Amino acid sequence: MGEPSPSFSEILEKGYPPEWLPFIIISTAMTLAMIVLDIWAFIQHKKYSTKFPIQFMCTIGILQVYPFFCFMQLIGMIVPKSHEVTVFLSEGLEALTFLFFLRLLFTYMGGKKATKSTLKGAHMHINVPPLCCLVCLPQVKFTRKFFIFCEFLIGLYAVYCLGVGFLELIMMLDAGDGYPNPDKGAHVISGTFGAIYHVLLIVLLFFAIYGLSGIYHSAEELLGHRGIVKKFLVYKIFTLLAKFQDLLFGTLVHHDVITDEDFKYNEIWPAGLRVRNCVAFAICVEAMISFPLALKFYNIADYVVIENNGTELKGDSKKDNPDVVKNDAV
């Protein structure tokens, strides 16, 4: 099942393997670079978004995924026993970005009430991603019930990640509390619970993507000029890749597919920890590559486009939604 992670004090006492120090240094440099870019993006968006506070909040919330994931991976590399906590925090933020993205769609169409009134009766296909392969599904009219159903799927994923994910974190920490002589029974229970948790997580993730796709495809004609698909894919591909990498290699180590025999043995640096750090470094590199693309797609031109459009979209009060925007697509 792989050996438990050593404490930070043990690693400081015996030292990091020399071959890993360059990876930690490079990951630190990438994290600092993304923090600088993040601060720059925050200042730029804040300058142009004074009339659109909710759009600004949602955009910045989504952009935090990249520096935050990179920072969490760096912490996990330096302090190995923090891995479960950093994974929980990363997955929690990733779940919240679904809510941010949903609200971003609403602001592009004038708010939640305006979205429902605009899309009422619109024809749409329900074979949207990730169910796009089911071509036999019929075309239906957009209804209030379908709108609520899509919102429910997205909210359920966020609640599951934060609520059940927290329970999994507690069980994982409890199982590893007896290091270096952990309770084998606790490991079996936490491993079983973790497996069930991740299977349901993947199922709910696809349902949440379906919920977002359902709302987007209902308003595709109105949102086509916003580059919604590019905005969604640029962060979702990154978070999915990070999630599946960690899950895949963690499973391989847990079931002894990858063992210490595959590496030069080090009592403080077992196979599981080496594999985990490889995945962490890969996620940092992927974040560094994806972040500039995200900054390109989530740019200040969005605020200018909204401000220069011609007709005010009705449906939400300014009290309920400060981002009652102008949109010529209605």
Please provide a written account of the structure.
- By secondary structure, the protein is an all-alpha fold.
- 69% of the residues lie in helices and 2% in strands.
- The radius of gyration is 22 Å and the shape is globular.
- 37% of the residues are buried.
- It is built from twelve helices and two strands, in the order ααααααββαααααα.
- The longest helix is centred in the middle third of the chain and has 35 residues, at 184-218.
- It has a two-stranded antiparallel ribbon with strand order 1-2.
- α5 runs antiparallel to α7 (144-175) and α10 runs antiparallel to α11 (271-297).
Ordered list of secondary-structure elements with their pairings:
Layout: H1 8-14, H2 21-48, H3 53-63, H4 65-78, H5 83-108, H6 112-119, E1 123-125, E2 139-141, H7 144-175, H8 184-218, H9 220-223, H10 228-254, H11 271-297, H12 301-308
Antiparallel strand pairs: 1-2
* Global structural class: mainly alpha
Largest sheet descriptor: 2 strands, antiparallel
Inertia-based shape: globular
Element order: H for helix, E for strand? HHHHHHEEHHHHHH
The count of helical stretches stands at 12
Terminal-residue CA separation: 58 Å
- Overall mean pLDDT stands at 76
